[in-house]
Design a protein that fits this description.
Elements lengths: L9 E5 L3 H11 L9 E5 L1 H5 L6 E5 L5 E5 L1 E4 L5 H5 L2 E6 L6 H9 L7 E5 L5 H12 L7 E15 L2 E16 L5 H10 L3 E3 L3 H22 L12 H17 L6 H14 L6 H7 L10 H8 L7 H19 L2
Parallel strand pairs: 1-2, 1-6, 2-5, 3-9, 6-7, 7-8, 9-10
Antiparallel strand pairs: 3-4, 8-9
Bound molecules: ketopantoate.
């Protein structure tokens, strides 16, 4: 258990989705919770569903379930500002399209020596948050920004219960501003299994983005598990998606090897064969997807270059059409 005397401040996780709850559980096992150092900031609707003494339920990969206490904070509560004044690290685990709007109202209340860590699928919100930090006030400009990407996976079985479904690696690195406090970084490294600290987090994000570009929209459109993409019929489309990603990444200053990326995508398809991708699940449940922060990010970054991205563009359009269809029928 980490020595909380050495940790000057508190950790707040923003977002109680599957990954938010997973990271909460992993940190909770490292922190002496009687010192109330770990909080979970949730939407007002989610808070209303909770008890004053809410328990979270966690089922591990080997099927063992545990319940543990969690201190919830309502994002719309009057006490939020006082709570934020004590926070030294905010781990943002909301959907990619919610990151900037969820963080914006919190920024002015965070201490100047605090740190933000983004952990979500896709890319783009890091640029929005960086510009929010630079434009909001001189104080916010001192807040450090780290980015993380994870191959861990979890499924929400109800509002306050998750089941872990995958235990891959997580990469974490500083993107802008001062580095995270050393004791917090040690705690996060101990809590999250297979965590790699990298000084090139943007390359790690582009690598994961390319994997998501190849797998997520195709599984959503074909309504299939990840494993079905191993079939021969998808290989030329997957190769074309990867090729466009590699070209745009290069224009962004990131070198990815197309052959290696093809192997990585095939490996993830194999390792997660029985899983339904997050975009498949979003489409199946008629929710907003992260398409604009996945293939849409590649298309957007290509616009200022002479690189064409017709394959990623077509996937963005197909997913937009599916979303528009159910939005119009709900
Ligand atoms: O990250 C994923 C997702 O579903 O969003 C992959 C790697 C495709 C695993 O399902």
């Amino acid at each position: 258990m980490a020595n909380m005397q050495g940790i000057n401040g508190q950790i707040a996780i923003l977002g109680a989705g599957a990954i938010g709850q997973l990271i909460h559980q992993q940190l909770a096992t490292q922190i002496n919770t009687t010192q109330a150092a770990l909080k979970l900031i949730v939407s007002h609707e989610r808070f209303e569903q909770a008890n004053t003494n809410q328990q979270l339920s966690f089922t591990s990969l080997d099927g063992n379930s545990t319940n543990y206490h969690c201190q919830l904070i309502d994002i719309a509560s009057n006490t939020l500002m006082q709570e934020l004044a004590k926070v030294k690290l905010v781990i943002v685990c909301v959907k990619a399209y919610q990151v900037a709007s969820a963080l914006k109202p919190l920024l002015a209340h965070l201490p100047i020596d605090s740190h933000i860590m983004l952990l979500h699928n896709g890319m783009g919100p890091h640029l929005e948050v960086q510009s929010l930090l630079n434009s909001s006030s001189t104080l916010s400009a001192n807040i450090g920004l780290s980015l993380a990407t994870t191959s861990q996976a979890a499924l929400k079985t109800n509002a306050f219960a998750i089941k872990q479904t995958g235990n891959g690696a997580t990469s974490l690195g500083l993107f802008a501003g001062p580095q995270m406090d050393g004791s917090l970084l040690t705690l996060v490294s101990r809590a999250i299994p297979n965590l790699m600290i990298t000084d090139n987090i943007v390359t790690a994000l582009w690598t994961k983005l390319t994997i998501n570009c190849a797998i997520n929209p195709l599984t959503a459109i074909e309504q299939c598990q990840n494993g079905q993409l191993a079939a021969k019929q998808y290989q030329s489309q997957i190769a074309a998606i990867i090729d466009e990603c590699v070209q745009v990444a290069r224009a962004d200053g990131v070198t990815l090897d197309a052959q290696q990326m093809t192997k990585n995508v095939a490996k993830v398809i194999e390792l997660t064969a029985a899983n339904y991708s997050s975009m498949h699940q979003d489409i199946a449940h008629q929710r907003q997807t992260e398409i604009d922060q996945i293939n849409g990010y590649v298309v957007m970054r290509a616009r200022s270059t002479d690189i064409n991205t017709p394959v990623n563009q077509a996937l963005v359009e197909q997913i937009h059409q599916l979303q528009a269809y159910y939005n119009a029928h709900n």
